[in-house]
Amino acid sequence: MDAIDDANQLRETPKNEVMSFFESAPLLKDAAEIEKSLKEFVDRNTSSSGNLSGKANRVVCITSGGTTVPLEKQCVRYIDNFSSGHRGAASTEYFLNAGYSVVFLYRRGSCQPFCSSLPDDPLLECFSVADDSSIEVDALHAETVKSAITENRAAVAEGILLKLPFTTIFEYLQILQLISVSLRDVGPSAIFFLAAAVSDFYVPWESMALHKIQSASGPLDIRLTQVPKMLSMLRNEWAPMAFHISFKLETDTDILLAKANMALKQYKMHMVIANELSTRKEVVIVVTEQEKVTVRRDCTRAGAEVESPLVELVVDRHSTYIKKFDA
Amino acid sequence: MDAIDDANQLRETPKNEVMSFFESAPLLKDAAEIEKSLKEFVDRNTSSSGNLSGKANRVVCITSGGTTVPLEKQCVRYIDNFSSGHRGAASTEYFLNAGYSVVFLYRRGSCQPFCSSLPDDPLLECFSVADDSSIEVDALHAETVKSAITENRAAVAEGILLKLPFTTIFEYLQILQLISVSLRDVGPSAIFFLAAAVSDFYVPWESMALHKIQSASGPLDIRLTQVPKMLSMLRNEWAPMAFHISFKLETDTDILLAKANMALKQYKMHMVIANELSTRKEVVIVVTEQEKVTVRRDCTRAGAEVESPLVELVVDRHSTYIKKFDA
């Protein structure tokens, strides 16, 4: 299970694997509603007469949190991918500040934009009820709470932040496809910033147990199938003009850069952001065909996040990318 | 995988399986701190001179939410058990109202007492910032939000609600053992109300992959070992005097009552609460040696929960149980 990927991995993902994944997946609920909100979002945030290099027309799809893989159709047990969603939530804030509109495709219950520096349970931890029965925020958290509420309301009201939730790998990939089709007209002004922790293995829907798996007296053997590598599909078929950024998270530093390079080549990503589980909040390495840039959190500023210089770098490289199309 | 448990299941859990589970489990962080807070909680809520049948001395340990099973030591992937924690959180409120003190052993991020009727993300959904920069609650949610904040603060301040979080099956079972030892002196006045969705299968720590499992080109086979049935240990060794209630959740109605009866006999539970995934918020069946009682939500009252009549019934049967010891 610990073998490093070999050259076999460089093969293209066969289209029939992808087709069979989608054909066997449970139907996405609310697909029509999601398409409608995406269409309105794109109409609102791009103008056909606009200058493609103007940031006003720039859109980023940020995926965030982990996808689940159900082990039963009437799901009691599932395999999950650890991800608080902090990276995606914080990056959303910096992209909005940089003038981008954001489609935030997030795991239900994961970290939300503008809330990443709040306690786990802000309602019970930050508030109290005064004698006159009005609700008060504790002084310690007042500023953070106020700016979270204000900035979130503003972004949603201005229509520059569209939040779409998912739970399973099936929902995630189907919604991602809808987003990529909706953003096709945005061309090179669109970024896919794929920070979600996506399941590598799953149980195909048709071979899944219907009911809760019973605990018999022996061990349980589960055979998991590899999820087709959708990055190739996204890059080559769904959104061929967009600027594509994927993430590589490992716990073993020795293989991290090799794996990041592999992803860059295999999926023709424009940028791979390599990060190691234990230091991911301090430092990431941005890998492109031309460069390897180490991006660090500004330790001299309290509350500074590594996502601030990271998004700054991404925006700069995205500008260069767009210019190539203008020329 | 779908076979109904057979008579083999009625065997006792061998003690060496349990010992080996605990010996190989990663060490519980903060064990000393948890023991200290439990000791203070028990001292505060029971008096040695008290009358055992007085509710003032009654304590319930409510477990809530699902336990996880890591698939890697440096955990990226894990198997999770679906459970919002709503049952445990709502039951906590009703037990507090009935005069019990509550140890709430809950999955991090799961539903909290007094918050079960709030939206998923109360901070962003219920609040706004007024022109004078004060924080306001939307009229629609004002009462629910206020009572959530007030009642939670009151319960914590009075010291009648002790919240202890867990994530993995290893943490859950180690903390449950600490609680059972701490509640030993409470004798028959203690209830274990085991609403958590506990993993049946796990990967033993010593055979677990150290790093993130690599996605090679083929399928992935995982062999899971059965978690030793700790209910027997809890019932017979850790807290032999307490009143024990376990839950049986199934998606297949046909096997539900048979499984509930099996659990009653196998683990010598005083009560098993049987519930079916799709109707669990409407109806549960309380199974004891003497009776089978169907408990339904009061559909005539808006906002009524099935946990209200359920806890009422539990408290009544617990009173009868305590009286046997007084006699």
From TrEMBL, chains A, B:
Keywords: Coenzyme A biosynthesis. It holds the Pfam family DFP. Coiled coil: none annotated. GO terms for biological process: coenzyme A biosynthetic process. One of its GO terms (molecular function) is phosphopantothenate--cysteine ligase activity. Gene3D superfamilies: CoaB-like. The keyword tRNA-binding does not apply. Residues 184-295 form the DNA/pantothenate metabolism flavoprotein C-terminal domain. Transmembrane segments: none annotated. It comes from the Eukaryota. The keyword Chaperone does not apply. Pathway: Cofactor biosynthesis; coenzyme A biosynthesis; CoA from (R)-pantothenate: step 2/5. InterPro entries: CoaB-like_sf, DNA/pantothenate-metab_flavo_C. PANTHER family: CORNICHON-RELATED (PTHR12290). Belongs to the PPC synthetase family. This is DNA/pantothenate metabolism flavoprotein C-terminal domain-containing protein.
